Amino acid sequence: MTETPYPLHTALSLAAAGVPVLPLRRGKVPLGNCRTCAGNACGGRPNMKVAGPCRCPAPCHGWAAATTDPAVLASPPWAAAWRRAVTVGYHPGGADLTVVDLDNAAAIAWAHGALPATRAVETTRGEHWIYRGAMTSRNAVRPGVDLKSAMSYARYLGPGTGTMTALPDAVRALAVKEPAPARPAPQAVAVPARSGNGECRHRTPAYLDRGIAMAEQRITAARSAVHATVYRTFLAVLSTHGRCGCLTDAHIARLFTAAQSKGETARHCTDAWTNARTRLGL
Questions:
Q1: How far apart, in whole angstroms, are the C-alpha atoms of residue 63 and residue 97?
Q2: Disulfide check for 99: which of 52, 146, 148, 163 has CB 3.0–4.6 Å away?
Q3: Which phi and psi (to 5°) does residue 89 adopt?
Q4: Taking the C-alpha atoms of 12, 16, 22 and 26 in order, what is their torsion angle to the nearest 10 degrees?
Q5: What is the distance between the terminal CA atoms of the chain, rounded to a whole angstrom?
Q6: What is the pLDDT of residues 184-208, one digit of tens each?
Q7: Model pTM score
Protein backbone atom coordinates (compact mmCIF):
# COMPACT_ATOMS: atom_id res chain seq x y z
CA MET A 1 0.00 0.00 0.00
CA THR A 2 1.37 3.40 -0.98
CA GLU A 3 0.68 6.61 0.90
CA THR A 4 2.30 9.81 -0.32
CA PRO A 5 3.36 12.73 1.87
CA TYR A 6 2.83 15.05 -1.10
CA PRO A 7 -0.91 14.88 -1.93
CA LEU A 8 -0.87 17.76 -4.42
CA HIS A 9 2.03 16.24 -6.38
CA THR A 10 0.14 12.95 -6.63
CA ALA A 11 -3.08 14.75 -7.50
CA LEU A 12 -1.47 16.63 -10.39
CA SER A 13 0.00 13.39 -11.78
CA LEU A 14 -3.39 11.67 -11.66
CA ALA A 15 -5.14 14.66 -13.19
CA ALA A 16 -2.65 14.65 -16.08
CA ALA A 17 -3.68 11.04 -16.71
CA GLY A 18 -7.37 12.03 -16.86
CA VAL A 19 -8.38 10.99 -13.35
CA PRO A 20 -10.51 13.59 -11.49
CA VAL A 21 -9.10 14.11 -7.99
CA LEU A 22 -10.04 15.77 -4.70
CA PRO A 23 -8.35 16.18 -1.29
CA LEU A 24 -9.31 13.86 1.57
CA ARG A 25 -8.84 14.70 5.22
CA ARG A 26 -8.21 12.34 8.10
CA GLY A 27 -10.80 9.62 8.19
CA LYS A 28 -10.65 9.20 4.39
CA VAL A 29 -13.47 11.70 3.87
CA PRO A 30 -13.69 14.89 1.76
CA LEU A 31 -13.25 18.28 3.31
CA GLY A 32 -16.41 19.96 4.54
CA ASN A 33 -18.23 22.55 2.47
CA CYS A 34 -17.36 26.20 2.83
CA ARG A 35 -19.86 28.61 4.42
CA THR A 36 -21.37 29.54 1.07
CA CYS A 37 -21.98 25.89 0.20
CA ALA A 38 -23.02 24.67 3.67
CA GLY A 39 -26.16 22.60 3.46
CA ASN A 40 -25.96 22.81 -0.36
CA ALA A 41 -27.39 26.33 -0.12
CA CYS A 42 -25.47 27.12 -3.31
CA GLY A 43 -27.43 24.54 -5.31
CA GLY A 44 -24.66 21.98 -5.55
CA ARG A 45 -22.49 21.03 -8.48
CA PRO A 46 -23.58 19.62 -11.84
CA ASN A 47 -24.65 15.96 -11.79
CA MET A 48 -25.42 16.05 -8.08
CA LYS A 49 -28.87 15.23 -6.74
CA VAL A 50 -29.57 18.91 -6.22
CA ALA A 51 -30.40 21.58 -8.77
CA GLY A 52 -28.05 24.03 -10.34
CA PRO A 53 -24.28 24.45 -10.78
CA CYS A 54 -21.97 25.56 -8.01
CA ARG A 55 -19.42 28.24 -8.85
CA CYS A 56 -17.57 28.07 -5.56
CA PRO A 57 -13.78 27.97 -6.17
CA ALA A 58 -13.19 25.67 -3.17
CA PRO A 59 -13.30 21.85 -3.22
CA CYS A 60 -16.83 21.55 -1.84
CA HIS A 61 -19.44 18.80 -2.37
CA GLY A 62 -17.24 15.74 -2.06
CA TRP A 63 -16.88 13.61 -5.19
CA ALA A 64 -18.57 16.29 -7.33
CA ALA A 65 -15.64 18.63 -6.73
CA ALA A 66 -13.14 16.22 -8.30
CA THR A 67 -11.34 17.80 -11.26
CA THR A 68 -8.52 17.23 -13.72
CA ASP A 69 -7.83 20.96 -14.21
CA PRO A 70 -4.29 21.69 -12.92
CA ALA A 71 -5.07 25.41 -12.61
CA VAL A 72 -7.98 24.63 -10.26
CA LEU A 73 -5.95 22.10 -8.28
CA ALA A 74 -3.19 24.64 -7.65
CA SER A 75 -5.50 27.63 -7.03
CA PRO A 76 -5.37 29.29 -3.57
CA PRO A 77 -8.58 27.68 -2.19
CA TRP A 78 -7.44 24.22 -3.29
CA ALA A 79 -3.84 24.79 -2.21
CA ALA A 80 -5.09 25.49 1.30
CA ALA A 81 -7.18 22.33 1.14
CA TRP A 82 -4.20 20.23 0.05
CA ARG A 83 -2.25 21.48 3.04
CA ARG A 84 -5.00 20.08 5.27
CA ALA A 85 -5.34 16.87 3.28
CA VAL A 86 -3.76 13.59 4.31
CA THR A 87 -4.32 11.73 1.05
CA VAL A 88 -5.82 11.96 -2.43
CA GLY A 89 -9.27 10.84 -3.44
CA TYR A 90 -10.54 10.34 -6.97
CA HIS A 91 -13.86 9.97 -8.77
CA PRO A 92 -13.70 6.55 -10.50
CA GLY A 93 -16.78 7.13 -12.64
CA GLY A 94 -15.28 10.39 -13.95
CA ALA A 95 -12.28 8.40 -15.20
CA ASP A 96 -14.47 5.63 -16.66
CA LEU A 97 -13.41 3.26 -13.89
CA THR A 98 -15.13 1.07 -11.32
CA VAL A 99 -13.57 0.11 -7.99
CA VAL A 100 -14.69 -3.08 -6.30
CA ASP A 101 -13.80 -2.36 -2.68
CA LEU A 102 -13.02 -5.67 -0.93
CA ASP A 103 -12.91 -4.90 2.76
CA ASN A 104 -11.52 -8.12 4.24
CA ALA A 105 -9.91 -11.48 3.48
CA ALA A 106 -13.25 -13.23 3.05
CA ALA A 107 -14.35 -10.69 0.44
CA ILE A 108 -11.04 -11.08 -1.42
CA ALA A 109 -11.44 -14.86 -1.44
CA TRP A 110 -14.95 -14.46 -2.84
CA ALA A 111 -13.71 -12.13 -5.60
CA HIS A 112 -11.02 -14.59 -6.69
CA GLY A 113 -13.72 -17.17 -7.27
CA ALA A 114 -16.45 -14.94 -8.70
CA LEU A 115 -14.80 -12.11 -10.68
CA PRO A 116 -12.24 -11.92 -13.47
CA ALA A 117 -8.75 -10.83 -12.45
CA THR A 118 -7.88 -7.17 -12.92
CA ARG A 119 -5.61 -4.53 -11.42
CA ALA A 120 -5.50 -4.86 -7.63
CA VAL A 121 -4.45 -2.25 -5.08
CA GLU A 122 -3.74 -3.16 -1.48
CA THR A 123 -5.76 -1.22 1.12
CA THR A 124 -5.58 -1.03 4.89
CA ARG A 125 -7.80 -4.09 5.38
CA GLY A 126 -8.29 -5.57 1.93
CA GLU A 127 -7.97 -4.68 -1.76
CA HIS A 128 -9.39 -2.45 -4.47
CA TRP A 129 -10.05 -4.27 -7.74
CA ILE A 130 -10.19 -1.71 -10.54
CA TYR A 131 -12.00 -2.34 -13.83
CA ARG A 132 -12.18 -0.23 -16.98
CA GLY A 133 -15.76 1.05 -17.37
CA ALA A 134 -18.18 3.09 -15.26
CA MET A 135 -21.41 2.00 -13.62
CA THR A 136 -23.80 2.81 -10.78
CA SER A 137 -22.18 2.88 -7.35
CA ARG A 138 -23.66 0.84 -4.53
CA ASN A 139 -22.51 -0.05 -1.03
CA ALA A 140 -22.81 -3.40 0.73
CA VAL A 141 -23.66 -5.41 -2.37
CA ARG A 142 -22.52 -8.41 -0.36
CA PRO A 143 -20.61 -8.81 2.92
CA GLY A 144 -17.47 -6.67 2.80
CA VAL A 145 -17.98 -5.53 -0.81
CA ASP A 146 -18.78 -1.99 -2.06
CA LEU A 147 -18.89 -0.65 -5.62
CA LYS A 148 -17.39 2.80 -6.23
CA SER A 149 -17.84 4.38 -9.64
CA ALA A 150 -20.33 7.09 -10.68
CA MET A 151 -21.19 9.67 -8.01
CA SER A 152 -18.68 8.22 -5.56
CA TYR A 153 -15.04 8.58 -4.58
CA ALA A 154 -12.21 6.22 -3.70
CA ARG A 155 -8.91 6.75 -1.95
CA TYR A 156 -5.82 6.62 -4.17
CA LEU A 157 -3.37 4.10 -2.72
CA GLY A 158 -0.94 3.65 -5.59
CA PRO A 159 -0.94 2.16 -9.09
CA GLY A 160 -1.48 -1.41 -7.94
CA THR A 161 -0.49 -4.57 -9.76
CA GLY A 162 -1.93 -6.55 -12.63
CA THR A 163 -3.57 -5.66 -15.92
CA MET A 164 -6.80 -3.68 -15.80
CA THR A 165 -9.63 -5.50 -17.58
CA ALA A 166 -12.98 -4.38 -18.94
CA LEU A 167 -15.84 -4.11 -16.48
CA PRO A 168 -17.55 -7.53 -16.49
CA ASP A 169 -21.26 -8.26 -16.31
CA ALA A 170 -20.64 -10.06 -13.03
CA VAL A 171 -19.74 -6.73 -11.41
CA ARG A 172 -22.58 -4.82 -13.06
CA ALA A 173 -25.02 -7.42 -11.77
CA LEU A 174 -23.95 -6.71 -8.20
CA ALA A 175 -25.48 -3.23 -8.39
CA VAL A 176 -28.88 -4.46 -9.51
CA LYS A 177 -31.26 -4.34 -6.58
CA GLU A 178 -33.52 -7.31 -6.25
CA PRO A 179 -37.16 -6.26 -6.45
CA ALA A 180 -39.04 -6.35 -3.20
CA PRO A 181 -41.21 -9.45 -2.97
CA ALA A 182 -44.67 -8.66 -4.23
CA ARG A 183 -47.48 -8.96 -1.78
CA PRO A 184 -49.82 -11.75 -2.71
CA ALA A 185 -52.88 -10.58 -4.54
CA PRO A 186 -56.11 -11.03 -2.61
CA GLN A 187 -57.58 -14.41 -3.46
CA ALA A 188 -61.16 -15.30 -4.03
CA VAL A 189 -62.16 -17.02 -0.81
CA ALA A 190 -65.20 -18.77 0.48
CA VAL A 191 -66.22 -16.30 3.18
CA PRO A 192 -67.73 -17.94 6.26
CA ALA A 193 -71.46 -17.52 6.63
CA ARG A 194 -72.75 -14.53 8.56
CA SER A 195 -72.76 -14.93 12.28
CA GLY A 196 -75.92 -14.64 14.36
CA ASN A 197 -79.49 -14.00 13.34
CA GLY A 198 -80.76 -11.86 16.21
CA GLU A 199 -82.29 -8.42 16.00
CA CYS A 200 -79.83 -5.69 14.98
CA ARG A 201 -79.33 -3.19 17.79
CA HIS A 202 -77.51 -0.60 15.68
CA ARG A 203 -79.45 2.52 14.86
CA THR A 204 -78.06 3.12 11.35
CA PRO A 205 -76.03 1.16 8.76
CA ALA A 206 -73.41 3.90 9.01
CA TYR A 207 -72.36 2.61 12.44
CA LEU A 208 -71.47 -0.77 10.95
CA ASP A 209 -69.77 0.73 7.90
CA ARG A 210 -67.67 2.99 10.11
CA GLY A 211 -66.67 0.01 12.26
CA ILE A 212 -65.59 -2.03 9.23
CA ALA A 213 -63.59 0.91 7.86
CA MET A 214 -61.81 1.34 11.20
CA ALA A 215 -61.04 -2.39 11.28
CA GLU A 216 -59.58 -2.23 7.76
CA GLN A 217 -57.41 0.72 8.78
CA ARG A 218 -56.19 -1.06 11.90
CA ILE A 219 -55.07 -4.05 9.84
CA THR A 220 -53.40 -2.11 7.02
CA ALA A 221 -51.58 0.16 9.51
CA ALA A 222 -49.95 -2.81 11.28
CA ARG A 223 -46.14 -2.69 11.05
CA SER A 224 -45.51 -5.87 13.01
CA ALA A 225 -47.39 -8.81 14.53
CA VAL A 226 -49.74 -8.73 11.57
CA HIS A 227 -51.24 -12.14 12.26
CA ALA A 228 -52.07 -11.21 15.86
CA THR A 229 -53.47 -7.84 14.74
CA VAL A 230 -55.76 -9.55 12.23
CA TYR A 231 -57.07 -11.97 14.85
CA ARG A 232 -57.68 -9.24 17.44
CA THR A 233 -59.44 -7.08 14.84
CA PHE A 234 -61.67 -9.95 13.73
CA LEU A 235 -62.46 -10.62 17.40
CA ALA A 236 -63.40 -6.97 17.98
CA VAL A 237 -65.67 -6.86 14.92
CA LEU A 238 -67.43 -10.08 15.86
CA SER A 239 -67.87 -9.08 19.49
CA THR A 240 -69.71 -5.96 18.34
CA HIS A 241 -71.53 -7.14 15.23
CA GLY A 242 -71.40 -10.92 15.30
CA ARG A 243 -74.62 -11.71 17.14
CA CYS A 244 -77.15 -9.49 15.42
CA GLY A 245 -76.73 -10.81 11.90
CA CYS A 246 -75.93 -7.44 10.33
CA LEU A 247 -72.52 -8.53 8.97
CA THR A 248 -72.81 -9.27 5.27
CA ASP A 249 -70.52 -11.32 3.04
CA ALA A 250 -69.30 -8.03 1.55
CA HIS A 251 -68.26 -6.72 4.99
CA ILE A 252 -66.34 -9.90 5.81
CA ALA A 253 -64.68 -9.92 2.38
CA ARG A 254 -63.41 -6.37 3.01
CA LEU A 255 -61.71 -7.52 6.22
CA PHE A 256 -60.17 -10.54 4.48
CA THR A 257 -58.90 -8.36 1.63
CA ALA A 258 -57.25 -5.95 4.08
CA ALA A 259 -55.55 -8.86 5.84
CA GLN A 260 -54.31 -10.35 2.56
CA SER A 261 -52.86 -6.98 1.53
CA LYS A 262 -50.55 -7.35 4.55
CA GLY A 263 -49.39 -10.78 3.47
CA GLU A 264 -51.91 -13.03 5.22
CA THR A 265 -53.06 -16.05 3.23
CA ALA A 266 -56.68 -16.92 2.60
CA ARG A 267 -56.34 -19.84 4.99
CA HIS A 268 -54.90 -17.64 7.74
CA CYS A 269 -57.87 -15.31 7.35
CA THR A 270 -60.35 -18.15 7.55
CA ASP A 271 -58.60 -19.67 10.58
CA ALA A 272 -58.46 -16.32 12.39
CA TRP A 273 -62.14 -15.68 11.71
CA THR A 274 -63.13 -19.17 12.85
CA ASN A 275 -61.02 -18.93 16.00
CA ALA A 276 -62.57 -15.57 16.86
CA ARG A 277 -66.09 -16.96 16.42
CA THR A 278 -65.23 -19.98 18.54
CA ARG A 279 -63.86 -17.83 21.36
CA LEU A 280 -67.04 -15.75 21.37
CA GLY A 281 -69.27 -18.84 21.19
CA LEU A 282 -70.80 -17.85 17.86
A1: 14
A2: 148
A3: -110, 160
A4: -50
A5: 75
A6: 555 555 555 555 555 566 656 777 8
A7: 0.62
